[in-house]
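Aim 2, interim progress: modelling of the S-adenosylmethionine-bound target.
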Amino acid sequence: MSEIRLTPIGFVRSAFSETAAIPKGLGAQHDAEGVLEIRPELEAGLADIEGFSHLYVIWVFDRAEGADLVAYPPSDDRPHGVFSTRSPQRPNPIGLTVVRLLGRDGPRLRVRGIDMLDGTPIVDIKPYLSSIPPEDLKRGWLEQAEQRKKR
Ligand SMILES: C[S@@+](CC[C@H](N)C(=O)[O-])C[C@H]1O[C@@H](n2cnc3c(N)ncnc32)[C@H](O)[C@@H]1O
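Predicted structure of the complex, ligand included:
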């Protein structure tokens, strides 16, 4: 497989017109509200979504420039492999954000937890479900960066 073509199912409407406005780094709170504007002809695909509190939003970093296998996350002063981070500069510029579903007006989903620029293309939405007990989760280098910051 050499190439995959995807068509956006919709676009993010957010208050963020530039990346500098989006909270970053350790302790950043992502509580911005916005709208996932799904193409009206796909509205039938949203049936029953209201029952879920949280959604995965799969989207494209359409304004990312280039890709790098080493990332310098704002949450650490050390480099990390890109696949250990959420860097926008990745071989396939796919973003994944978990949002809280606040409500639905037809093909428009009102959500909280937006970290995307206004106009970001959405390629898929899925209900958020996790069966992993919190005690089994390891936070990798992020946990070490948090410990260093506390010292
Ligand atoms: C660190 S990434 C994490 C995104 C997502 N939660 C993830 O894990 O894939 C979030 C940053 O991506 C950048 N960003 C947001 N929307 C973008 C877009 N459409 N194109 C390029 N960069 C974008 C902003 O700088 C934002 O702070």
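The mean pLDDT is 96. The first helix runs from residue 140 to 150.
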